[in-house]
Amino acid sequence: MTSTWVENSKARRTSAKLNPVTVPSKRLDTWFELLADCRFRRLITILERQLDGVTKTRELFEHFYRRSIGSDTEVTDDARIRLRIDFHHRLLSKLASAGVIAYADRMDGVRYAPPEEFEALFAYASADRFPAEVDRSTAAEAERTQDEVVLVCLANHRRRIVLTRLRMHESISLADLADEVAECEQGRPLCDIDEEQVLKVYLSLYHDHLPRLMDAGLIDYDQQADWVSLSNQSTALDRYRPFLPND
Q1: For 168-178, what is each residue's pLDDT tens digit?
Q2: What Rg value do the Cα atoms of the chain yield, rounded?
Q3: Residue 37: CB partners within 8 Å, gap ≥ 6?
Q4: pTM for this structure?
Q5: CB contact set of 71 (below 8 Å; sequence gap of 6+)
Q6: How far apart are CA 166 and CA 172, in angstroms?
Q7: How many CB atoms lie within 10 A of CB 238?
Q8: Distance of CA 112 to the CA centre of its chain
Q9: Which of 165, 167, 176 lies closest to 225 in space, CA to CA?
Q10: How far lies 57's CA from each of 17, 47, 99, 130, 144, in Å?
Q11: How far apart are the first and last CA of the chain?
């Protein structure tokens, strides 16, 4: 059966109801990672706009293909084949693994049946917030927008904890921040956590997570004072607050 496509899916997006987030942290990592990639957002937008429940895989690819190339872009047969391989073996497979679609190689169709929490998250990370994705070239896709950089930062549970604690304190020493992150991750008071574990958290924040958050413009770090604070640009996190760990 041929799928019916509609031009405006905003009503369905905004109707998604936010529940307390009970999504496992690893699953949420994956969802943020997917939504940081314009190709996944493009594909989800197409799936969201069909009304018949199941879309034939070939039909879905043709819609995705037309939205993935510029109107003035000349595409070789090799490029189309590469896009088809990526579509089947990476994009659809990852969405299926993330619980967003029902799909298997043996199936002739794709069913878009995401959890309510994913629909709510997609409503916040809506494609409408990003530059027009029709005619967005492959070269442009290699350059992330600021909104995409924020989503990449949120695609890690430890970084989400860091941002939550900074929202509580506004500024805090890195040592105290490491203590609080360790407590949150372990679900135990600091006195019951091995010092070596806390040190590992401290080092991972210093060498990995803080530099990423600084590059994204979300935090400021005074290395001499060993002091961390939210930046003025951290307001970009406000719309994702329901998906951050509880304060």
Answers
A1: 998 999 999 99
A2: 20
A3: 148
A4: 0.85
A5: 135
A6: 7
A7: 9
A8: 18
A9: 176
A10: 29, 11, 17, 26, 28
A11: 48
Nearest 5 degrees, angle CA 48-CA 9-CA 122?
A: 60
At 111, which helix (H) or strand (E)?
strand 109-112
Whether residue 219 contacts residue 234, with contact meaning beta carbons closer than 8 Å, is answered with yes
Residue 88: DSSP 8-state: I
Q: Which of 176, 166, 164 is nearest to 247 (CA)?
A: 164
Backbone angles phi, psi at 110, to 5 degrees: -125, 130
Residue type, 75: V
Would you state the torsion angle of the CA atoms of residues 29, 22, 115, 149, taken in this order, to the nearest 10 degrees? -30
Cα 226 to its chain centre, rounded Å, is: 29
Q: What is the pLDDT of residues 132-178, one digit of tens each?
A: 454 444 444 456 788 999 999 999 999 999 999 999 998 999 999 99
Listed in sequence order, the residues at least 6 apart from 32 whose beta carbon sits closer than 8 Å to its beta carbon are 121, 125, 151, 152, 154, 155, 243
